[in-house]
Amino acid sequence: MKTIHLAVAGVVVACLPRAAIAQQMLASDRVSVQMLAGEGGREIPSSTEKLVVAIDGEHASSDLIETYPNTAGAQIEGRYQLRPGQGAHVDGFAYWNGEEKIVGEVFERQTAERVYNQVTQRRRDPAILEQDGEGLFSFRVFPIEPGEQKRVEVKWSKWLDRRAETMTYRAPVTSRGAEIVVTIDGPIKNVTSSTHELSVEQIAGGVRLRATRPLASFAGELDLTYEIAEPAWTPDVYVQPAAGSDEGWFAIGLAAPHLPPTAATAKDVTIVIDRSGSMSDAQKMFYAKRAASELVGLLDPSDRVNVIAFSDEVDPLFHEPHAADAQTRRDVGAFIDRLSPGGGTDIALALTTAVHAQAADKSDRPHVVVFLTDGNSEAASAIAVKTGNVQLFTLGVGDDVNKPLLNKLAAEKRGRFVYIENARDIEPEVARLGTAIAHPLLVDVSVTIEGIEATRLYPRTLPDVFAEDELRVSGRFRGAGPAKVTIRGTLAGKPVAFTRAIDLAHAHPWVAPVWAQARIDHLLEQLELDPTGTGELRDEVVDLALAYNFVTPYTAFLAVPERELNPAAAQTIAEARAHKRQVVAQESTPASPTTVAAASPGDATVETFGPDAADAKAVTGKAELDEDDAAEPAKVHSHGCAGCATDGGSGASWLALVGIVALVISRRRAARSR
Hints:
It is a single chain. This protein is of the alpha+beta class. 22% of the residues lie in helices and 36% in strands. The chain has eleven helices and 39 strands. The strands form seven sheets. Strands 2, 23, 24, 25, 26, 27, 28 and 29 form an eight-stranded mixed beta sheet that branches. An eight-stranded mixed beta sheet has the order 9-8-13-6-5-16-19-18, with no helix packed on it. Strands 4-3-7-12-11-36-10 form a seven-stranded antiparallel beta sheet. Strand 5 (48-56) and strand 6 (59-69) form a beta hairpin. The longest helix has 19 residues, at 511-529. It is globular, with a radius of gyration of 25 Å.
């Protein structure tokens, strides 16, 4: 392993891509890339490969360019598959015909597929990149001629995994001879790679790393870690002002430190295991039982434990948690071993039973429920269960997990969602879950922003912050400052506050797209939980994705030379571009904010303080509310959309068009209501 010790002056920068904003998810994180010769065909090895990465503190933008030779004696269609890791989103795509670079643009998915099929029927050269499930992106390119060297490029962004001060970056790299260049801005130290030897060059504000050769452990990826050189509990605040106005977007991160094992709190833990028919896949049941056993092994003797199996009925081992002594552990292990799948799935009944089993204990011990399930149950009744002071952690197993339900359950019950896709992830992810359960640190969290007006915050409910965890918040703002942010909570039973000034003049161009991605993730979650709102929510997802150049389940990148378009395809493209121009070319005058009551602890509150923050009283928080927010006036909501990408042909900077999508969406809703 190659370690480089650095002391680089600069500014730490953080970013918030994808689902991490709505709810930071502990998750397995596979990365891979491959090109296949047709659907299910042989893998084509790359002949050249270049990975260029720009890391801004915690945010990474990756650009992967690869060349794939067609050594077959016939024309083929290439099938490219990319897993950039959980939480990443693809925001760029291109391919080459010889020396001509064909750059993709985002369209509604049905439009992109229709044009792709129209062009390929003429045996021409289009390519289409789509999202094919959670964390998997793929594209087809046709044709690749015999002997041709087909060059392709994909770009993606991600808010990196942070545990205390340690950051991790991983990316798929298939070739031992790949050219790899990584630039990291900010005060960092102790750069380490477990897969490559590195050379380091100090540059203004950071370092530039180059991979000199792969190590023996190299297995198709780049693995890089480094440490953020800042004190524990330091808030990181980043903004992107809107051009020509006093509005903009902000992103906040607060990382919790490591804690020694002696800092663990004695707690009651109830492990609830799904044994319904949906878990009949042998792999799923194996994962759930092994994860439960791993979790029991992490408990301290001062803890108490219970296990409940459920299908459409519940089977508790004990009526309430028992001391985690040797005999209890043996009883729990035998109970877990005996479980076999069968029956329906009633998460609401199982959750209610687990909460009631914890209710007898009136002490201050933390009460924790851990659900191990695929989440295939009725969503509304499960979400409606009142859990009181019980923290709920959900652990999804298998490749068809109902992530929206499990994520929402954990988010609203002050816990975390863990996703385990394959067996190799069980031990490290359960260990991380065990650390979170053992070390609840900052509770009753609130965010105060002074000097500017903050609106439309994500997440809607602020979670507790655990050891090696990170709080992440994004939103929009109005005002010119000066401004500062204060994060308050209770730490070890005492009130604490962490404050940092906000530099409104230092712009980070990823903050607005990150906020839009958080909104998209929220909408997609709502679509899966409540399909009755499909039309309106889907339209907003499409509009945001078109404006920000995102691949979603409803949008795709299409790259096709204009000369290859037949009249029908050209007409389809012209209409799609006209729609994009309508989305991004209408300026929006933000509505006056609606005053709402200050949110209760745990909600994303926005308080305004006078010059002496220690003595001032919080006044009413403010937020812009959509029509669907009217029923919940006590919460500061994060609805709406803003920001723009290019207008599809005008050449104007997208920064000059920020904040303009909301009017289009509101007009659509008004038109529907008429």
